[in-house]
Amino acid sequence: MTRIVLRTALILAAVALAGAAEAKGCLKGAAVGGLAGHAVGHGIAGAAAGCAIGRHEANKQDKTKSQNDAGQPAAR
After folding, report:
1. Whole-angstrom Cα distance, residue 24 to residue 7?
2. pTM over 0.70
């Protein structure tokens, strides 16, 4: 358990140092992915995948929001 907490803290610290613009969605995704990955024995890989998916979803939401603000119909 201590190793998991230490790894999670290390990953979150690295993400925080990467910058807020790049980390949008990554922290939440990494936390969820890390827990899911830990359940099957691959916490680090789960955190990395969760971060990537979280960033993708955050970027998709930003794009949709900017299109809606500009008065254009949102693409799906």
Report:
1. 20
2. no
50 domain residue, yes or no: yes
Whether residue 56 lies inside any domain: the answer is yes
Q: Are 34 and 9 in contact (CB under 8 A)?
A: no
Dist. CA 26–CA 16, nearest whole Å: 10
Domain contains 75: no
Element (H, E) at 73: none
pLDDT tens digits in sequence order for the chain, 76 residues long: 778 877 877 777 766 655 555 667 888 888 888 888 888 888 888 888 888 888 888 888 888 888 888 765 656 6
Does the residue 74 lie in any domain?
no
Our count of domains for the chain comes to: 1
